[in-house]
Amino acid sequence: MPKVGIRDVAKLAGVSTGTVSRVLNDHPSVTDELRARVRSIIEELGYTPDPSARSMRSKVSRLIGIIIPDLTNPFFSELVQSAEQAAARHGYNIIVMTSFDHAAKEADRIGQLTSRKVDGIILVPSNDFHALKLPKGLPIVIVDRLLPGYSGIAADHRSGVCLGVEHLVKLGHRRIGFISGPKDSVPANDRLKGYLDAMELVGDGRQNSAPPLIAEAAFDYESGRSAGNYLLARARHERPTAIFASSDQQAIGCMRAAHDLGIPIPAALSIVGFDGIPLASMTTPRLTTVKQPIQEIAAAAVAVLLSKQDAPALGKPLLLACEISEGETTSSPQPD
Amino acid sequence: MPKVGIRDVAKLAGVSTGTVSRVLNDHPSVTDELRARVRSIIEELGYTPDPSARSMRSKVSRLIGIIIPDLTNPFFSELVQSAEQAAARHGYNIIVMTSFDHAAKEADRIGQLTSRKVDGIILVPSNDFHALKLPKGLPIVIVDRLLPGYSGIAADHRSGVCLGVEHLVKLGHRRIGFISGPKDSVPANDRLKGYLDAMELVGDGRQNSAPPLIAEAAFDYESGRSAGNYLLARARHERPTAIFASSDQQAIGCMRAAHDLGIPIPAALSIVGFDGIPLASMTTPRLTTVKQPIQEIAAAAVAVLLSKQDAPALGKPLLLACEISEGETTSSPQPD
DNA sequence: TTGAAAGCGCTAACAG
DNA sequence: CTGTTAGCGCTTTCAA
Q1: Strand order of the sheet with strand A270-275?
Q2: Do B85 and A98 touch (CB under 8 A)?
Q3: Are B74 and B220 within 8 A, CB to CB?
Q4: Per residue in B88-114, is it b (16+ CB within 10 Å) or e — as a string?
């Protein structure tokens, strides 16, 4: 089968290759009649334009690159999946790359994507990221881990966490612990701010001399477990009656810590997580969590890229609202 | 900055574009001296060849497509990540696509990848997959869900499950329940065979009149939970003392079922899962599971593709060994 | 071993 | 509105 090219179509339709090309690209200046004829021939021949040739001439590859720190993280895999769907709706495909939170690898990947001539990049910056040198001319949108000085798209972590903590407050909790993320992470700090916002309204209900109710940790399970142990290993009257964790994985680790200490959930301890990954609904008991609008974030990122309005380098980030997903790890506190 | 092309390099090096091209492609017939000179100029100019132009002439895109049913499934996301790494080591990039277990979408995606001129496709076929019409000439390797009549690469599910069940047997279990996967799934059936293999050696220790110890289910959490309820909702003497689940998610669902029925794990019920996803080590108690060699599978798939030896259409599948990962959900059975 | 030159399949001026 | 034509940046004969 001698591969069918644009000239075959042109010949059979009795038009020039130029016209076929214009039909292909939905150029307005083609008679409806011709357009129809060409379309049917294309159909008949099963012709598909060669993307390389196209990209070479037009500087458009219909390819979007997405770089994330770790695909094993359910949050990111859902992000990628959502981006893939959004892109597919526009005839775009996705090249995925993993940076493993390694700035050098990340820079390399950006270079690869640039030379591949992708039409845009969705980037979740690595944590040890410092000087981002964005290849200019290439639209790039920062997602989730917003960088100070760059605009981007993310969930509104601050108000989301606030929402979750307020939920606990409404249930009657006052001594509410917080497991934060790594302190050099922008989203982690936003989440911390959300916690502080909420706590300011109610006071934290503990003596000034009492140990702090905030534990810093990485976002993973083990760190959450350690942080949970730290927060819970104290006398009952100064132990938090509820804990808000900055990630679902942390929350689940914290559940483990509580379990090992013989603290029943939610009877003696309420726990709320953050992220809303599938995992959250597979724990026993099911985790109450603040759900990030992952699909919306991905769709917005793709939309920005396709609209060619390369994200204004210093504009305001687009923040999307979270919502609470109630599970079985929250209840009113027991009287002391 | 006027983009640097191959002629710039050629000019500066005082050679022809042909020579530069040959250096780029490691063509043997270039003097070491020239090769060195050209290389240094390339370095100096920071020249990177245009993949589109390259691909157009040479029919090589350095792109690999990977189609999976669902990126949200941790098994697949790890597979994709591993493939990405393996590909990157060879200068290849990955285009991901999700089929959502939808045969039509899958066919469409295969078409897209074909017209993108990817150098190969890694395919985890959708479940409602029937007639796969593989575009010939395009290397494609079937992974995980092997298709009868096609060769491919997968974990050795059968012997893996056998391993897990034998582990239970060694602990002293005889009444071992099994949660199978959907019956039209090849891997699910392989896993079932592994269970039967192992049980044949020991007998299943139940009266012939007793209800069967096998429950069919989808691979997800909720299905595992239902199946667990089914297997456990019976009198103690005919209830299994151990359950092997065909997936970790099922196993976790089953843990939930046991919990709700007040059956302590592992004291009154041992559970073993299958897959070895990160999730398995985040449950309380930690899940004992049979781990698939995901990285090896991905690496092998990429290797097959790059070696251009398009997987022999009817050859024998390559089966990679699983290993057991011991958690806290298994122990010897309590005496009745 | 190297250079010269002919395209790969398509798009985008430029005419008409 | 449509046809003609000149390349896009590279690889690859074909000669030298």
Answers
A1: A214-216, A176-180, A242-245, A270-275, A288-291, A323-325
A2: yes
A3: no
A4: beeebbbbbbbbebbbebbbebbebbb
Phi, psi (degrees; rounded to nearest 5) at B63? -125, 135
CATH code 1.10.260.40 for A6-49? yes
Domain B157-293 in this protein, CATH class: alpha beta
pLDDT in tens, chain B (336 residues): 668 899 999 999 999 999 999 999 999 888 999 899 999 999 999 999 998 899 898 888 899 999 999 999 999 999 999 999 999 999 899 999 999 989 889 998 998 898 888 999 999 998 766 666 677 778 899 999 888 777 789 999 999 999 999 999 999 999 999 999 998 888 999 999 999 999 987 765 554 445 678 999 999 899 999 999 999 998 888 899 999 999 999 999 999 999 999 999 999 999 999 999 988 998 889 999 999 999 999 999 999 998 865 445 456 789 999 999 999 999 999 875
Burial of B45 (0-12, 13-18, 19+ CB in 10 A): middle
Please give, one letter per residue, the 3-state secondary structure of chain A: CCCCCHHHHHHHHCCCHHHHHHHHCCCCCCCHHHHHHHHHHHHHHCCCCCHHHHHHHHCCCCEEEEEECCCCCHHHHHHHHHHHHHHHCCCCEEEEEECCCCHHHHHHHHHHHHHCCCCEEEECCCCCCCCCCCCCCCCEEEECCCCCCCCEEEECHHHHHHHHHHHHHHHCCCCEEEEECCCCCHHHHHHHHHHHHHHHHHCCCCCCCCCCCEEECCCCHHHHHHHHHHHHCCCHHHCCCEEEECCHHHHHHHHHHHHHCCCCCCCCCEEEEEECCHHHHHCCCCCEEEECCHHHHHHHHHHHHHCCCCCCCCCCCEEECCEEECCCCCCCCCCC
Instruction: List CB contacts (< 8 A) between B96 and chain A.
Output: 80, 84, 94-96
Neighbours of A121 (CB within 10 A): 24
Q: Same topology for domains B63-155+295-320 and B157-293, yes or no?
A: yes
- pLDDT score of B254: 96
Distances (CA, A) of A115 to A119, A250, B81, B118: 11, 38, 22, 17
Q: Answer whether CATH 3.40.50.2300 is correct for domain B63-155+295-320.
A: yes
- Is residue B216 within 8 A of residue B227, CB to CB? The reply is yes
The pTM (predicted TM-score) of the whole model is 0.89
| B96 to A80: CB separation less than 8 angstroms, yes or no | yes
Residue B282: strand, helix, or coil:
helix
Spatial distance from the CA of B155 to the C1' of C11 (Å): 47
Residues of A in contact with B115 (CB under 8 A): 48-51
pLDDT recorded at residue B309? 55
Bond preceding residue B285 cis, omega within 30 of 0? yes
- How does DSSP assign B6-27, residue by residue? HHHHHHHHTS-HHHHHHHHTT-
> Would you list the domain boundaries of chain A?
6-49, 63-155+295-320, 157-293
Total beta-carbon pairs less than 8 A apart between chain A and chain B: 117
Tell me how crowded residue A95 is: count the other CB atoms within 10 A of its CB. 22
Q: Do A282 and B56 touch (CB under 8 A)?
A: no
- Quickly tell me which residue has 């050209």 as its tokens: B38
Our measurement of CA B18 to C1' D16, in angstroms, reads: 15
Residue ranges, chain A, pLDDT below 50:
207-209, 310-311, 313
Q: How many residues does chain B have?
A: 336
